[in-house]
Structure formats: structure tokens, C-alpha cells
Automatic annotation (TrEMBL):
This is RNA polymerase sigma factor. The lineage of its organism: Bacteria, Pseudomonadati, Pseudomonadota, Alphaproteobacteria, Rhodospirillales. It holds the Pfam family Sigma70_r2. Residues 130-182 form the RNA polymerase sigma factor 70 region 4 type domain. Belongs to the sigma-70 factor family. ECF subfamily. CDD domains: Sigma70_r4. One of its GO terms (molecular function) is DNA binding. Keywords: DNA-binding, Sigma factor, Transcription, Transcription regulation.
Amino acid sequence: MVQDEAITPENHVLSHWLLCVGRDRDRQAFAKLFQYYAPRLKTYMRKLGSDGAVADDLVQEAMLTVWRKAEVFDPAKASAGTWIFTIARNLRIDRFRREGRPEVDPADPLLVVDDRAGADDALATRQSGERLRQALHTLPGDQAKVVELSFYEECPHVEIADRLGIPLGTVKSRLRLAMSRLRAALGDDVR
């Protein structure tokens, strides 16, 4: 896990304190745990790249979680240190994920999509679509069929091969030839 700890008398004492916190809500035992683990957790957080203030916040949050969840600690499954450091690590990961996804204001004018397409855009789209249809009609039938299945019906290449009763390599070759011909026919319109 996070911290490998040898079985020592100190580990037994730490586990005992944690069990006292879980069983009896023993504040003195918690204070001893806090005094022992807080500096170690802060060093651990700093080594993982958290700045001082964030490390302090994570230590406070981790120790609060230890207080709240001490009753689920099982010394047969992990040492007190492993259990506490795992809590701290998970809290750091959660914070990192939260901070990595900024909240979005749906009313932000920069995010509002203008549903009204300009007349020029609509005309350009229609013209491009018409040019593409004309270019598709110039393709040999076998290539046109493969393009239709792949792009219009969104069939996977394996399914196209099955439906047409041809090898997968043939499907890929026909698509490659068709795309080459379409690029040549459309010229500058291909992006």
C-alpha cells in the first residue's frame, strides 16, 4: 500500500490508539495520533507536490476522516499508518480531480451557442454537400458502397466485410482508393 511498516511495538501502540478512537471516541488517543501522524502526512503531501497550504488542508481533512471512520479500522487488514496514509492519499487524489475540472457557468456568454447559422454558412454547407454527392457518384460501385456503409451507416470495417462477403483487407483497400479519388475530385474543399 502507501506505507510499508514493520511490526513493531510502536505500531501496536498506534493501532491501539486508533482502536480506542474508534471504539470509545477517545480524544487523548486521537490527540496522540494527530501529534504523531500530522507532520508525517504533511511531509508526504509535500513530496507528492502539494504546496504548504494545500498540504495542511489535506492533513486536517485526513485526520478528520480518521476521527469519523476510526471504527472501521481493522488491524488485521492494515497497520494504523497504512490505513491513515491511504486515507490521505485518496483525499489528495479526490482534490486533484476536483481542481482539474473547473465548474462551468452555463450562463457564461462565451459558452452560449448561437443556434442561428448564418445564411452564408448554410449555403456553404449545402454546396459542399452537393459537391460531395457528385464526387461519390464518380466512384466505382464497389468503392461507393464501402464508403456509404462506412461513413453514412457508420458500420465497422469488419461488419462491412461480413455484409458484402469480402475480406477485411479488400474493404480497407476500397476505402483507401475511394478516399484518394474523393480528395482529387474535391480538391481544396477537403480538410
